[in-house]
Amino acid sequence: MTDIIKLLTTFDGRIGRSHWWIGFVITMVGTLAGMALFNPAVFTAEGPPPASWPDTIWQLVWLIPATAITVKRFNDRDWPWWLGYALGAFGAFVTAAPHFAFQIDPDAEIAGVTVFWLFLVTFVAAFIDNGFIRGTHGPNRYGPDPLAEGQTPA
């Protein structure tokens, strides 16, 4: 259990794809559970769902473990240290924006459409990079290879 907590709450070191997938599934289940509990209109709304502060706070809390696993996977891929944090900040902006009259939607004004497509492309690229591409072989500046024999993943 402490390994799961460490996986979802620490930002240093490297993790392999299998640990990223475990963290991804946990964060997706937590995210979807919060949506069902705090803003079920998300699943049935024809347009952008109404903003809900309880749901937004729930989603922002779940961005912490999502950012933690992303940072560690980007570390494994030897990406710049700030990139995973930038994606987390972008996710926080997209999550909170509807509360400040900024709609992020493919049918919104030009700024909302631009942010929507930028977020979608960024999410898909990070998903592919994190979930399907092997990390750096051997040690890198973020630590030892999590797939090397005898290594305990972070």
UniProtKB/TrEMBL annotation:
Keywords: Membrane, Transmembrane, Transmembrane helix. The keyword Transmembrane helix applies. One of its GO terms (cellular component) is plasma membrane. It holds the Pfam family DUF805. InterPro entries: DUF805. The chain crosses the membrane at residues 20-37, 57-75, 82-104, 110-128. This is DUF805 domain-containing protein. It comes from the Bacteria.
